[in-house]
Amino acid sequence: MTESFHRSGENQNPYEGQQPAPVNPEWPPPPAYTPAQAPTPTPSASASAPAPAPRKRPRGPVALLAAVAIVAAAIGGGTAYGIQELTGNDTVTSSSTSTNVVPSSQKGTVSGVAKAVSPSIVEISAESNAGSSTGSGVIITSDGEIVTNNHVVSGASQIKVTTNDGKSYTAKVVGTDSKKDLALIKLENASGMKAATLGDSSGLQVGDQVVAIGSPEGLSGTVTSGIISALDRDVTVPTDEEQGQQQWGQGQGQGGDQWPFEFGGRQFNGDTGSDTTTYKALQTDASLNPGNSGGALIDMNGNIIGINSAMYAPSGTASSSSAAGSVGLGFAIPVNTVKADLAKLRAGATD
């Protein structure tokens, strides 16, 4: 509405002599409150400038729209608050991802992570010409795709997988990548599996709390916890299949899969041989033992942030794995490396 102004002393009535405008019965009555008075205008440099007349209270549809806008704003603010409460912006412990797999009542607890993620972790028993060994794996699809280490299934002629609830399946290798020590296997005749949530390892920081789940020494569903001890560790592992089978088979009868690796110019758990590859790994002090390879390293929201791949054995050789134990030096392949490799693995790569 355009306001009109007149100079002081001119008491002209612009509606004099006119019939009053009819009142629309559909317009609501003015609100039952006294509107706030307009602020007193600040005197301008020119004393002769006319003072503006008070703003007239809007009537009819304008007043109705204003009231609706106020109500909508109030509802909008309440909705935003409700969404904030429901989504839970207080993500606990981890900076890697905002996805919360663990129920809010158990956030930040090892027991909460274990309960939420254990159904997605499996035990893998593999048979080859070199012997037998036990490792772990992570279910990533409901129809039974499982990520594990290449060295867990390398050269295997038969693979048996046992899920967290005790069910057994046979599995076939889909694809392998020895340069990253990754493999993808697929359960036969499986459906309705609980898939793990793959997180984001790019935001991890030294000191972040983590949980490891796997089958050390054939003890399926074992849960340990610790922190991220270091990032981007250069870990060197063998890519030669024959070398891998030789070391892999030495764990026969002990549930071991101690994989020879090199770090800092020193070799651990046996000779890595001449054909090796190096990848950037997460270092953790969460207890890892023979059989944890291929299992999950998890943040406190329940997201997979790494695939456990190597551990330092004080004995120095895989053949004496029964005397080996965790000393808090474990390594995991970052989950972002896994995600970047999935398409290749699904396509049947055999590198």
TrEMBL record:
Residues 1-58, 238-276 are annotated as: Disordered. Residues 22-42 have a biased composition (Pro residues). It comes from the Bacteria. InterPro entries: Chloro_Bact_Ser_Proteases, Peptidase_S1_PA, Peptidase_S1C. Keywords: Hydrolase, Membrane, Protease, Transmembrane, Transmembrane helix. The chain crosses the membrane at residues 62-83. This is Trypsin-like peptidase domain-containing protein. It comes from Streptomyces venetus.
